[in-house]
Every structure is written in C-alpha cells, then in structure tokens.
Amino acid sequence: MATVRKLIVEVVEARNLLPIDGNGTASPYVQIDFYGQRKRTRTKIRDLNPTWNELLEFNVGKPSEVFGDILEVDIYHDRNHGQTRKNNFLGRIRLNSTQFVRKGEEALMYFPLEKKNIFYWVRGDIGLKIYFVDEVVPPPTPPPQPPAEEVKPELPSPPPVDSLAPPENEPKPPSEANGNEESAAPPPEPTASADAQKPNEEPPADAKGASNLAPEAAPPTENVAPPPTDNVAPDQMEKRTEVSESEPPQPSEKNEDQTDQPPLIECKQPYPQIGMMATSTPKSPESAPEPIKMTMGRERFTALDPTESMKIEPPSFELVEKMHYLFVRVVKARSLPTNGNPVVKILASSHHVRSKPARKTDNLFVWNQTFAFGHDAPDSSSLLEVTVWDPPANSDKHGHGTFLGWVGFDVTEIPLRDPPDSPLATQWYRLEGAGPHNGDLMLATWVGTQADEAFPEACNINSQAKVYQSPKLWYLRATVLDAQDILPLKASKESSFQVRAQLGLQVSKTKLSVSRNGTLSWNEDLMFVAAEPSNDHLVFTLENRQPKATVTIGVVRIPLTAIERRVDDRPISSTWFSFEDPDKEKRMYKGRVQLRLCFDGGYHVMDEATHVCSDYRPTARQLWKPPIGKVELGIISCKNLTPMKTVISGKGSTDAYCVAKYGSKWVRTRTVFDSLDPKWNEQYTWQVYDPCTVLTIGVFDSWAVHGMEEGSKESTRPDLCIGKVRVRLSTLQISKVYRNKYPLLVLYNSGMKQMGEVEIAIRFARAVPTLDVVHVYSQPLLPLMHHIKPLGMDQQDILRNTTVKIVAAHLSRSEPPLRREVVFYMLDADTHAFSMRKLRVNWFRIANMIAGLIDIARWINDTRLWKNPTSTILVHALFVMLVWFPDLIVPTLAFYVFVIGGWNYRFRARDSLPHFDTQISLVDTVDRDELDEEFDTVPCNRPNEVVRARYDKLRIIGARVQRALGDIATQGERAQALVTWRDPRASGIFVGLCFVVAMILYMVPSKMVAMAFGFYYFRHPLFRNRMPSPALNFFRRLPSLGDRII
C-alpha cells in the first residue's frame, strides 16, 4: 500500500525564557514553519518555563525551490495576555532536515534560542522531539457512478486533469509517485470568509499543485465518464476545460508477451532502453556478434555457483586503471525440450562458470544473470562458449545432465562498450547441437570495464566486491540506586548483597552493600554496549554473598525497547522494578530495586584506538554535523606477494583481497585467486566529517576457495594477514591525487617480514569553504558527553573490547562473511597488550620530544659560557631590548615560531605519505625473546624457565623506574620543605630572604632588577666559580620523606 511521509514535531517545553510583559513574566506560544505549512501550540499564560507536550504534524513534500527543507521554530509572546512592548519575539531556532531521524530513534533535545539579528535580546532553550513517520494510506472508496444518460460513448474525450487527480489518501500512479511521493491532500475549497483559514491548516506547496498533473500520467480514456461538476467553482471549470482540450489521447498498451514485434518503449531518459529483439537477425555492427558453429565436447565444463552481490556506490574510476572484462548477460530461454530447471554453463578464457537453476514462467526459462570474465589476461581465449544443460533431478551442482544446446562467439568480434554508452540489447539466438528440438536463448555479450553498471552485480570468476556496514551502537547506562524490602536469609546477622547486571555476554556487578533492615544502597553506574536492532533483555540479579556460596534472591528482566534514549546530560527519572523469583514457575515478591536506565546517544562508541580512529561522531544522528568533503580510495594492485599457503600440487599460492575501513563503512575487494601480483583497480568513496581521522587498508589471504564444502578443514581456517596501511587524512592536500606503493610489513614472533607491497591512490576533496574546515580544528575531537561525563581509562578499554567483539560478530554473519580475525586485525584489538619493545619505543619518543628543549638549554649554557663571543654579545643586546621594551616579547616569540615553521616548510614531504616506520618501531633491533613475549597470550603458556627469566628482567627495569620516581618525589618534597618548617633553620633562612627580596623589589624598578639578573647570569667565566651555586647547594640540603621509608 502507498505511504505518506509525515514530520512529527513534539514540542515538550521551554526553559528560562525572557520576561517581556512588563510584570516579570511572559505568555509564550510556539509557531513552526515547514514546507510552507505553519502551525502553532497553545498559549501558556504567564509562564517562563512553559510545558506544552503537543504534537504538530507536517506533510513532507518533494524538494522545492520555493520552500526549503529548513524547520523554523519561533517563540512569541501572546499580546492578548498582559502588557507588552511592540516586539513580542522570544527566540527562534532553525534546523536542517538532515538532522531528523525515523520514529524509534528520536530523543528529547534542548536547543538554545537564537536571535533574529543583533538588536534582539533572547535567552533560554526549547526542548523538542523531531522524527519522520510513514503513514499507510488506506485505499480510496470508489466514486459514485454517474447516471446513464450522462455517459456519451459515441463522443469519447479525454477526462479533465482534475478529475484524474487522486483524492486524499489515494496512492499515486508510478509516474507521479516518483515526483510527488510525499504529496499531501489537495487544498480545501475556498470559502467566503478569508479569516476562516488558520495557520495550522495550510497544506504543503506541492499539494497545492496536485491538480496540475502531467497529461502522460493519466490512464487510458476509454469508457471513462466525466466526474460530476457539482460544487465546482467556475474558474476551476475553465481551467479543466483548457487542460482537457490540450491533452492528447493515450495509446493502448502493447502485450509484453508478443514475440512478432518488439514493444514500443517511450524514451524518457538521456539514453534510451533498447527493445529486446524477438527473432534472430543478421549480424550488424550495432547489434551483437554472430554466433559461430563448431563441435565441442560436453565433458569440459566444471560448475561453479555464483555468489550473491551487494550494490556498490558507482564511483568515477578516475584513480585506477581501466580493466577490460568480457560480460555475458543470460536472460531467458524458450522452446527447450525439458520440464526441469536448466542451467547455463559458460566457458571463456579457460574459466568455467555455471548459472543458478532457471525459474519457469509462461513457457520461458528465466535466469537474468550477468557474468564477467577477465579480458586482459595473457591466456585469454578467442572463443566464448555458452551451453544449456538440464541437470538430473538428484544431482549435485557438479553434475552435467542432459545437453540442450550451445551458442559460440568469436571474442574478437564482440563489441566494446564504455559508459555512458547505452546498454547493449539482448537478442534471441538459436541453440545448436542438441538434435531436432532446438530452443532459443536470449543473451547479450560485450566487452566493458569495471565502470560498467553491470560490474558490481556480475558473477565474477573471482569473488565479488562487497560493501559492509557496522551496526549502530549505543552506550547503555544503568544506574543502580537502592533496593527495598529485601529479606535476608538469616535475619540475625548482617547480609552482603550485590546486583549483577547482564546484557548478552556482558556482565557487570556493583560493590557489596551490607544491611540489616532490608534497605540497600549502591548508587553505581554500569555501562554496556548495545547494537541495533535491540531485541535483548537487560537482566538484573540480586545476589546474597555468603561464605559458602552465592544465593540468588530475585531477577528483573527489562526489554531494551522500553529504555529511554537521550542525547545530552539531562537527568533521567528513576523507576522501581520488582524482583521476581528466579524459578519461573513461582511468582513471588522478592523486593524491589530503583534503577535509572537510558541509552546515551551523546557518546561515540569507540571501536578503534583514539589516535587511529576513523570517526568521532556521536551515536545520535541529531548531533551529526554536515560532511566537509569526501575521500576517494583506489585500490590498484599488489606486487611480489609472499605465498601464504601450499595447494595440493605443492605449489605456493596466495588468494589475496583487500579490506578498507573508514567510519562505519567497510569495503572488501574481490578475491584474486592464485596470484602473487593481483590487480583489483577498484575505487570507493567515503563521506568525511573530520579531517583528523585515519583510513585503514588491509591485505589478506583467503581460504574460501579451498573450503567451499561445508565441514571441510579449510573452511574453518582463518584468513591470514598480509599487511596493512594507514593514511591520515589531515596529511593530504586538497584535491591532490596521491598514488604510492607501500611495503606490507607484518611482525611475527620471529621478527619483521615484508610480505610484498600494495599500490593505492587516494584523494581528499573538500565540499565546504576553507573557513569551515578551519573551524573543525577548533572543535573538540570527541563529542561533548565525553567531556561532561568522561569515562575512565579502564572502562573505555573494557567497552572498546566489547564493541570490537560485537562488530566482528555482526560482520561475520554477512555473505560473504568478513571474518573475525580480519576485523580484529583492522581494529587493532590487541593494541594495549604489554610489549617490552613498545615500552622502549615510547621511552625514545619522550626523549625525542624533549630533545628540542635539551638543545635550547645546551645553547643557553654555551652562550652563558662565552663559547661563541659574537653570539653572546648579540644575546646581551636582545636581552636589553626585551627588558626595556617588554611589549616586544610575545611578538618576537611569535615571529620566531613563524620563521621556524616557514623554514621547515621547505623540507616537507611532497609526494609520499607517512607509513609504518621500522626505525621508530625498533623492529630491526628488537630481541627475539622480547618478540616472543609480545606475542604470548594471557595467561602465559611458556616454560617456567622462560617465565622466570622474563620476570627477573622486569624486576630490573622496575627497579630503575622506582629509582626515577623516587628522585622526582624527593625534589617535590624539598620544595615543600621550604615553608613547612621541617628544617627550622632552612625555612627561617628562606622566609627571611624572601622578605628582603620583596623590600628590594618594592623600592627598585623591576627593569633594573631584571637587567642586573641577566648580566649576572651571562657574566664571563673569569668572574664565575666552578663550584655549584649557593642557591642549588641550599636546595639540596633540604629534607625529604625518603629517610622515613622502611
């Protein structure tokens, strides 16, 4: 049935509005405009925090140049209630329709009110729920038949256009539904009173033009009586007469099953659809190749089942090389001497494929499948053979059955097609070689590229490319407050209770609470990860911890569909739930618990590490910002891959495919079987919302071709990782194409190994002005909820591991599946595992970070020691200038940073993008035992001697860290001892010296003091003592707490 889309705006409340009536209050109402429709709420008299809870419904029309897709919400003061100024405006908001969601995903959101211009003064915010809903339109009642005397069959004429317009809630015909899919009811008839039409009764703009339907959308006019003209205005009658006179008569439809003459198809597209030819025609350069005749053997075919495919977003293929494919589209057959379900087998370039069994409809056998074969291979054959077989009833997919005929083509005569050429017309071909009863096969064959629209859905000799989508994930916050009426098993003693919450395989527990009177208190937050669709239950179990065992007191089961969603930190009301007996057969009251439950849509559910994350958007779609551009990735080829497995013949083989991940969109290229230099030349596109994100590309070896049979040993083997590449989008220049080769590096417990290299092309295209991109850099990286209610580091790690498992389980259920080990490798699920190598790498990273500061300190010391007298004199002059003109300090530092940045700009990377650095990663110098420890599992499964040696090494490193931490603590405690009088004489000296310094600075200008200190610090070594300074000696003598440690 037809549906009509509605926009529902639930006006909940407003807060902290501006008083405007002169008495410190206001009487507000809300007025909403959308697609030319205006509706308003009731007036709340003298209320600065009004609550409406009203639902306003709007019709959603087609895109219009007059009415935009902006929802405008205005709050006004009602002048009928209280005195007011001339201005009664209280605030407004403007929302784009891209922020609206479907019903079921809505959440209460508070929007701060905005001004119309700078001369208005507003304050407060408004709470709304906005969502789309599709209403089913009931079928219309048939109109009453006109009297027989009004029908004039001898003078048929086209009916008026208005008479053909469907009434309210009637589904549109297909030609009209494409343009006016969201049309509303026609406008009401005009009345005598102009004030009778209220603002909330205005229809959308496209509904007002529903009467002016296109003439070609009308049905045939035979035996159609004109509608009654009662209650029709004269001007409308004149309009109907004009349209009826200009409307041409409609031709009758042609039967689709006729084969003597091709059907007439009206061309409404830039490239017309070519009609199917009903009979064999002579060969022409514009139609199809002529079939050739030759004798062929039937035992040369091996059947392969085609796989399902997913439609891929059609890219422009500008970043990759063109690859030619031989396409064969098999549509249907007729007059076959069989009552079964025949199959088609195709032999091209030594590759054999087999279609799915045909379905029989009206004496026709229908396949409607397209096949693609590589046409650039050196072993490409010059013959294309298409055969039809009737498999036995109890045969498997490898059985041959009865031969029904064949068609052959010379590949050199097959036409070449490049988009935007029109699709090649299918044609009937006579099957030969099956005796006197020959049937006909309708097919089309052509040579095209991967840009052909048939390529994504074509059954390739390799597996098909696929696009996957990660599930929509939410953080579920469950706050366990308290419980009442809990009866302990032993009333004479105190009992310890805890609540155990479980969602699927996720389990969390509260701390223990002790009570005597049956009242317990926890007030703890438990966090879970939930995926849509949410059909599970959140189960709370009250447990009594006893010395011998844990006893279950009661259970509460809450469906996830009943839990409220929020997008900010607004408080959620708590609810009491009754515990039930764990035994489902008993219905006994076991107490009650107070819970506060909500889905937090303001967080970003992390499935990647923060420093390599590809998306930072929150879960709630209402909080998404518009994209700033798109990134295009071309996966070209791999070179010199290492054989990953050994086939039955003993030959090394690799069946490589690529996986790319950005945001929630995953793509997988087709698998190139048995090739160490595979070529894909596939291109994909992602929307970019934040430039400071990372695109990940991984290369894997598939076992699918060797494990097609269910239960085989190869079908359970994991796909092997060949390597991966990360590209940070912020390092890309706008609209520049980067085409580079990257080495595929994999770290094993035996060392690093290069598995080959992958060639990719990437381009980042900006879709917004430059200032918008600059503005993104000033925004927080994570959504606001991560800063308002931050999650702990341990909690983030637990939730991330859970998220990775949920995503892996979801993608493994696809067809073809994206395996668990592939998802774990792409998401770096084991990033936080302990590694001595990574510990050393981070130490050197810190050393490199402070190396610049160390160089500055060394340069200052050399200047102080007069190693370069010219430089020291210049520093003295600069110091005098900065002391006497302190306003130049900040501009001088800024200009110095500018000069350094401009100098380094000359040495920037121009072509190649940064990749994994083996020198920074220390993979070339790492010890073999440290690598073995890095790849060891938890708990450890190595021999005791190895574990003891690693433990001793860890103790040595721990002793060094302990000494360094002790030295840092000592220096801090000495600084505290200056004024804590732990050493009375030292504190007295320091306090007295501070008094003297303060008196001197009160009397002497600060510039003179700074000048004297600078010249004293940079004095010549002839006036310098080689002993440490008295201040440093004094500080080192201060006491610390180190002497009190046992």
Walk me through this protein's architecture.
- The protein has 1046 residues and is an alpha+beta fold.
- Helix content is 20%, strand content 29%.
- It is built from 18 helices and 41 strands.
- The strands form nine sheets. Strands 11, 14, 15, 18, 19 and 20 form a six-stranded mixed beta sheet that branches. Strands 1, 4, 7, 8 and 9 form a five-stranded mixed beta sheet that branches. The protein has a five-stranded antiparallel beta sheet with strand order 10-17-16-12-13, with no helix packed on it.
Number of strands: 41
Number of continuous helical runs: 18
Q: State the assembly state of the protein chains.
A: single chain
Strand share of the residues? 25-35%
Our Rg estimate from Cα atoms comes to 39 Å
List low-pLDDT spans.
148-287, 294-314
Mean of all residue-level pLDDT scores: 79
What profile does the largest beta sheet have? 6 strands, mixed
Query: CA-to-CA gap between the ends?
Result: 83 Å
Shape designation: globular
Structural class: alpha+beta
- Percentage of residues assigned to helices: 10-25%
Which key terms come to mind for this protein?
29% strand; 20% helix; alpha+beta; 5-stranded mixed β-sheet; 1046 residues; single chain; 18 helices; 41 strands; 6-stranded mixed β-sheet
Structure, briefly:
The chain has 18 helices and 41 strands.
Q: Which secondary structure elements does this structure contain, and how are they paired or packed?
A:
Elements: E1 3-15, E2 28-34, E3 37-40, E4 51-59, E5 70-77, E6 89-96, E7 101-102, E8 109-112, E9 125-136, H1 161-164, H2 174-177, H3 205-208, H4 234-246, E10 291-292, E11 324-334, E12 343-348, E13 351-354, E14 359-361, E15 364-374, E16 383-390, E17 402-410, E18 427-430, E19 440-449, E20 459-460, E21 466-469, E22 473-484, E23 495-503, E24 506-509, E25 513-515, E26 520-531, E27 537-545, E28 550-559, E29 565-566, E30 575-580, E31 589-600, E32 629-639, E33 645-646, E34 652-653, E35 656-662, E36 665-668, E37 679-688, E38 694-701, E39 720-728, E40 737-748, E41 751-766, H5 770-777, H6 785-788, H7 793-811, H8 820-827, H9 836-849, H10 851-864, H11 869-884, H12 889-905, H13 918-921, H14 928-934, H15 944-976, H16 984-1003, H17 1006-1017, H18 1030-1036
Helix pairs in contact: 7-8, 11-17
